[in-house]
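Subject: for your reference before the review

Hello V.,

The reviewers asked for a structural picture of the protein, and I figured it would be easier to keep everything in one thread rather than splitting it across files. Below is the amino acid sequence we used in the manuscript, unchanged from the supplementary table.
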Amino acid sequence: METETKVLSKTNEFGTYEIRMESIGGQGANLAGKLLAEAGIMEIGLNGVNFASYGSEKKGTPVKSFIRFAESDKEIRLNSPVVEPHLLVIFTTVIAKNVPLLTGVKPGCMVIVNTTETPEAVRDMLKIPGGTTIYTVDAMGIAVQERVRINTTILGAVARAVDFMTRAALEETMRKTFTKKYPKLVEPNIKAFNRGYEEAVKYDVPDDGKYPVQHFQGFKPKLGWKNAPIGGAIVNPGNTVLNDLSASRSGFKPVWNEELCINCGACDSTCPDQCIIFRRDKDDKGKERQFFDHIDYKHCKGCLRCVEVCPKDALTAERE
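And here is what came back from the structure prediction:
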């Protein structure tokens, strides 16, 4: 396919158009960033870079993907995270409580959100500043119906929002990528992509000053050489106890049927995150034993291993 240089709709002082994707591990934001960058470079003829930022690779932890584009005659010398995006893509709103999603979002920025809510409701929920443009799409619902991840559906919304990122360029890139490794997934992903393009809902937010711009602030450690604990003790160990990992589920969750359960504990043995909660109680003979109590959905990532091992079908996979 012949490349054709297109004029970028807007750029910053460095001559780049910048995109930031906010997601969690397992939803495909890293691959989405790669596909987007490849489409811009190989199909449209722009210069571009893409890289991701994440901590633990455990499914359910925060992930950021960054993409920069420049005209074909403009070199990109920046490799730092995108602070003030022209386009912000939010794969899940669940992480809003722990991650400052709207950092650097200013009037003129476009925000794509995976949600079932209306754009107006999303604006108030995330406190999106005025003068921006919001696109909402039920990417999870589409992905479940088409049996794919949500990333290709969201790319459809990106093609709808970004004027220079053509629908044809992204579709061609997706076909090449999936044909190499997952040929059976080509058509389902293309269908999800096109549905994301068609079903995205646009809302131009009035410049009413309702919510202030959240400016970027560099990291400032709380502990230094003056106040560090003796011995360098770690006072706040890294763990996922306080994190809500429910957003990493791919549209399904295990549901328990108490009447069919025999309290064998097979589900508890196979759960990688200790989400099956048992209680100690007396049976009908007055003997103390363990009984299935509930599922901790806050930390359940939807792997559905418990459903697979249940001998009595007391656990089933249900659409959220």
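For the response letter, the relevant points are probably these. The chain has two domains: 17-204, 249-319. The mean pLDDT is 90.

Happy to draft the paragraph if you're swamped.

O.
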